[in-house]
Amino acid sequence: MGFMCVSYFARKNGIRFDKKQANARTGMGRVGGVEVLVARPQTYMNRSGEAVKRLMQKFHVSIEDLLVIYDDLDLPLGKIRIRADGSAGGHNGIKSIIQELGSQDFPRLRVGIGRPVTNGQPEEKRADVIDFLLSESSPEVKKAVDEVLPRVNEAILCIITEGVTAAMNRFN
C-alpha cells in the first residue's frame, strides 16, 4: 500500500523514479514550491530502515522532514491516519526505521487495509495475515484503493505545504 501511495503521488506530481541509490528507487521534484525526494526502499520491508537512514544521510534530510507512508492492518480499509510521531504499533517496517534512526519522532501516514475476516471475526493468526497481505486483492479492496489514493495524495500535499498538524486536523 505504501508503494502504491508513493507511486501515485509521484505520478500526479510529475516525479519519476529514475534513480537507484541507497537501496531505494528514488525521484526528485518540486511540489508546492518545495523540493521533495520520493523513495521506495528496495530492501525487505522489515529492513526498510536501512534505506531510509542511508537516504537521509546522503541528502541531509532532517527527521522532521521525513514522511513514512505505510499500510495498517488495524485501520479499516481505506481510512488514513496521520501522526507526528509514535511507536511502531507492531509494524516491522516502522520498527526497522525507528531502530536505524534511533528515534520514533518522525511523521507518518498510515493507510488502512483492514484485517482478514474469518467467520465474522478479525484474523489474528500470523500465517493467515501473511496470506491476506500477499494475496490478490478483491474487487472491493481495489475499489477502496482507487478511492484512497487521491486522498493520500491530498494529505501528502497538505503535509508538505501546511505541516503535519494541519494535515492531521483535516484528514484524521
Tell me the layout of helices and strands.
Layout: H1 2-12, E1 19-21, E2 24-31, E3 34-41, H2 48-59, E4 68-72, E5 80-83, H3 92-101, E6 108-112, E7 117-118, E8 121-122, H4 126-134, H5 139-162, H6 164-171
Parallel strand pairs: 4-6
Antiparallel strand pairs: 1-2, 2-3, 5-6, 7-8
Helix pairs in contact: 1-5, 2-3, 5-6
Structure, described:
With 172 residues, this protein is α+β, with helices and mostly antiparallel strands. It has one domain (2-171): Rossmann fold. Helix content is 43%, strand content 22%. The chain is built from 6 helices and 8 strands. The strands form 3 sheets. It has a 3-stranded antiparallel beta sheet with strand order 1-2-3. A 3-stranded mixed beta sheet has the order 4-6-5. A two-stranded antiparallel sheet has the order 7-8. β1 (19-21) and β2 (24-31) form a beta hairpin. α1 packs across α5 (139-162), α2 packs across α3 and α5 packs antiparallel against α6 (164-171). It is globular and about 50 Å long. It starts with a helix and ends with a helix.
